Structure to design on (480 residues):
């Protein structure tokens, strides 16, 4: 794995995010609320990317925008699940969000500071996996549709589950790899980015399903 | 003691990640298959419940019809018979007394009572339906309602459908009775038309040129049990496996079509 490959994967990842945004813009007004939140989630993901490019040019540390983005990500993902899970889980989502915020602040101020806050990311991944399982449980109790593959939200949640489950072990060992083994993480982080690409592809399937549903009903 | 080497860490990451990915894949697969199975089970259960409710409804309507038949028979044979005997008695008394005009008014009242009893009995179970079939029964109903309400009720006769069972005929007659009664009582129509028949499918059409009605509001009232007319009609149509098409708008009259596959 060379730096060239790593950058190429990064560009693919960025390109897919743009495609997702463009796909969500089609019939935006008629899109379901979940798709609108997904669009917001991917739109906000550009902010840390632009900040990183800017900070790199200035020669400063690039981790802080990523760390701040973790908070934003928790907000958008929680909003997405709040929309689909309904009022019943409102208190649970709020409590988990609050605990995550406290965790984020403590880790950011006292422990990992301006390093990549992997502990917070691991904690976030566990919360997201829990949200996904909660959604699946709701699907099994509500039985809203015979073919789940027709539901955009099913794909959004599946993408979230695959990404967070796949990156969990990697994130657990990132700080050990950097601090103790002084690894440059090129291979490991490329693998992380490939999982991110898989997540984007699954989200695109969901967006396509939503588009298909709109066309079917018009 | 030294910590794990890079090789060991890489191995842990690979094994852990593969395990987590497999687990998430298994969860998704389980969800897709199990949810589909559960959904099918639910549909099956709902169909079973629906069929049970239909059978229950059929039994209720059947017992209702039996009760009506019994009541109609009692009214006609017992009370009707007794009233007729009283009338004969009154006629013979009027011949024997000095002022027979005194009997005229009670006799008129008695005639009206006999006529009312006959009408109630006919409404409950018209003998024409039992003897001559659905077409004649509805034709007779139209004629009777035209006489009592003074609104022209025109009957258009299609082909006689002989494949209908006795209970189906009774059910269709009840729907027709309810629809025509509604048109006469509530529509303020100047003309009502009733069409019956069909070859591949049976059709009952009741049309009027009256004030029309708002279907949704009537349906809401029906479910609140304020007016059971439409509720009863829809229930009977459901039991018959028939479709009910209601075309009604305020001030434009209404057309209600019940179609029954043969």
């Amino acid at each position: 794995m060379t730096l060239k490959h790593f950058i190429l994967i990064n560009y693919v990842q960025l390109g897919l995010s743009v495609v997702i945004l463009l796909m969500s813009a089609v019939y935006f007004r008629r899109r379901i609320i979940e798709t609108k939140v997904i669009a917001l989630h991917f739109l906000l993901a550009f902010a840390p990317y632009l900040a990183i490019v800017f900070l790199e040019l200035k020669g400063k540390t690039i981790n802080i925008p990523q760390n701040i983005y973790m908070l934003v990500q928790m907000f958008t993902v929680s909003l997405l699940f709040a929309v689909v899970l309904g009022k019943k889980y409102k208190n649970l989502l709020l409590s988990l969000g609050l605990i995550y915020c406290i965790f984020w602040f403590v880790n950011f101020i006292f422990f990992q500071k301006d390093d990549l806050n992997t502990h917070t990311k691991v904690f976030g991944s566990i919360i997201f996996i829990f949200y996904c399982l909660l959604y699946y449980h709701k699907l099994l109790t509500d039985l809203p549709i015979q073919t789940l593959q027709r539901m955009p939200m099913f794909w959004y949640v599946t993408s979230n589950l695959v990404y967070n489950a796949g990156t969990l072990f990697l994130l657990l060992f990132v700080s050990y790899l950097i601090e103790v083994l002084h690894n440059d993480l090129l291979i490991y982080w490329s693998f992380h980015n490939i999982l991110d690409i898989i997540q984007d592809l699954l989200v695109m399937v969901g967006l396509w399903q939503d588009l298909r549903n709109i066309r079917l009903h018009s | 003691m030294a910590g794990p080497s890079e090789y060991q860490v890489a191995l842990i990451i690979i094994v852990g990640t593969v395990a987590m990915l497999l687990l998430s894949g298994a969860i998704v697969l389980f969800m897709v298959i199990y949810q589909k199975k559960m959904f099918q089970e639910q549909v099956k259960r709902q169909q079973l419940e629906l069929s049970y409710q239909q059978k229950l409804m059929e039994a209720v309507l059947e017992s209702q019809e039996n009760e009506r038949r019994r009541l109609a028979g009692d009214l006609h044979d017992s009370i009707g018979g007794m009233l007729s005997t009283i009338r004969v008695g009154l006629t013979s008394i009027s011949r024997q007394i000095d002022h027979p005009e005194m009997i005229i008014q009670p006799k008129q009242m008695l005639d009206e009572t006999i006529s009312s009893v006959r009408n109630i009995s006919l409404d409950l179970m018209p003998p024409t339906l039992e003897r001559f079939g659905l077409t004649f029964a509805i034709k007779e109903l139209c004629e009777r309602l035209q006489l009592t309400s003074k609104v022209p009720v025109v009957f258009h006769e299609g082909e006689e459908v002989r494949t209908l069972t006795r209970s189906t005929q009774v059910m269709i007659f009840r729907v027709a009775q309810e629809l025509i009664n509604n048109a006469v009582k509530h529509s303020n129509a100047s003309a009502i038309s009733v069409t019956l028949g069909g070859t591949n499918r049976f059709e009952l059409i009741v049309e009027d040129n009256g004030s029309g009605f708002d279907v949704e509001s009537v349906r809401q009232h029906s479910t609140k049990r304020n007016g059971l007319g439409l509720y009863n009609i829809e229930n009977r149509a459901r039991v018959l496996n028939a479709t009910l098409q209601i075309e009604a708008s305020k001030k434009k009259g209404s057309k209600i079509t019940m179609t029954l596959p043969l």
Summary: The CA atoms of residues 43 and 49 of chain B lie 10 Å apart. Chain B touches chain A at residues 3, 5-6, 9, 12-13, 16-17, 20-21, 23-25, 27-28, 31-32, 34-36, 38-40, 42-43 (CB under 8 Å). Chain B has a mean pLDDT of 87.
